[in-house]
Design brief:
- The protein is of the alpha/beta class.
- It is 45% helix and 12% strand.
- The strands form 4 sheets. A 6-stranded parallel sheet has the order 7-6-5-8-9-10. A 4-stranded parallel sheet has the order 1-12-13-14, with no helix packed on it. The chain has a two-stranded antiparallel sheet with strand order 2-3.
- Helix 11 links the parallel strand 5 (320-325) and strand 6.
- Helix 3 crosses helix 6 and helix 3 (104-129) crosses helix 9 (255-268).
Amino acid sequence: MLSRATSRLLNLSRSTTVPKAASLSVYASSSPPFSGNAGIGVSRSNPICVSNATRNAPSKQTSRRAMATAASASISNPAMFCRQCEQTQDHVACRSVGICGKTPETSAMQDGLVHTLKCMGLWCVAAREAGATSEEMYEANWWTLRSAFSTLTNVNFDEERIAEFIREGQQVKKNLQELIQKKGGTAPTGPVASIDLSDMDTTQLEEFGYTVSIPKLKEAMGNDDCFSLMEIATYGSKGVCAYAAHCHQLGVMNEEVMAGLHEVFAKLASSEADMNGLLANVLRVGALNGKVLAMLDEAHATKFGVPQPTQCKVTPTEGKAILVSGHDLMDLEELLKQTEGTDVNVYTHGEMLPAHGYPGLKKYSHLVGNFGTAWQNQKFEFSAFPGPIVVTTNCILEPRRMYKDRIYSINEVGVSGVKHLGSRDFSEVIAKAKSCKGFPKTISPPEYHTVGFNHRAVLPLAGEVIDAVQKGVISRIFLIGGCDGSQFDRSYFTELAEELPDDTLILTLGCAKNRIIHSKKLLHQTLANGMPRVMDMGVSEIG
């Protein structure tokens, strides 16, 4: 029997379809649909219609919003104010300690680094106006990408590492000052451009961070709507920088993108309540994001080959083992090269799962499979893994003691007390793997998931899909995507997928895929024409 929630969504979708017409429904799993996401149905009779699942929202959601409003009104001089992820306290902001484990000290340090990025934006714009070349801007470009990336959710919890980024930024700024002077350009002015943090120790940098916290900046702007636009552009820019950092790792650095990012950060340096200018800034971030994602998709395919539908083993193989989590395929490739012939097997975890679809990676026979599910389960899964773990990007959580001595960070990732790899020399990790017990036996019979349904693999199937729709084999296509999390309500998406009729095609995106591809009910299900019912299309950084 279908749940009331699923029945309601299907009824909303059916309201705009005609016989033998397939509809497409899109659900973002970052929040349950009743929290405000809409299902979008598309049919031949009505090209685009929106089925808003909030129209009959349960009363508990109403009370949640009321609680959030009350909590927001009661905020007074919080120890921290972090709201860049959607799992925040009371759905407003984490104000004493982060749901992710972030401390007020780390939050303040990240606020200080974000303000340094705005300062750098002003200086980079001035340098380009003075005639700086792409080669002369490289140092500032790469610092910008790494620094912004390090402030994303579940990337860097290490205050000293964040302080290093700030101090490095001060040196980059000094170099830009000299470059602008040499070229006869005009240096930027104003309070943000004039920030000098070069002589501050970590404690002083932390104190500076408190002075540029979200509540302080909001007060300075004095306009809630304008400040919301500033926040959207800030968080969006961090995402663009993360994708661009991956591009750089693959050998692609686009000066047009970098110039755009620095202009966005320069606009964010102003506290002027400029509604039109801030809205234009937000739209520019969206345009930059689309360009960078296309660059990243092409760079991955060029480096590792076009992804192909591939059976990925999800049960252990006997032997020593290393687990790789995150998104950086270059790290994975280098680890595979260094472990070749060592009798050490390599497994992927979480967002790294789509790596198995790339020909340039799956050619390594000791890339034996995937271990575990999504990021929020890592404390249990990493504890159970019998070898070292390498976290290449987000998401990392404060490790448990039982595996803290065998987890390693690299790139922008950082956690105090966790060994950080300064380069792609994985010799220490390999030695650690050889000293760990590894998997004692190979599980039989093995289990597999199919990955690699990249758009290049799916679009050629368009004719087959259209034929299946016209013949009534497929009634609807559901896209369920987004970032996963630990809230109980997120089981909604698993229930939705499991309760959909057998003639529906389900596409998954992002780490929320784990709630669906691990469903015993949906595993290995096919449509009447033999096509798989569930196709995972990867994540934004991979796939």
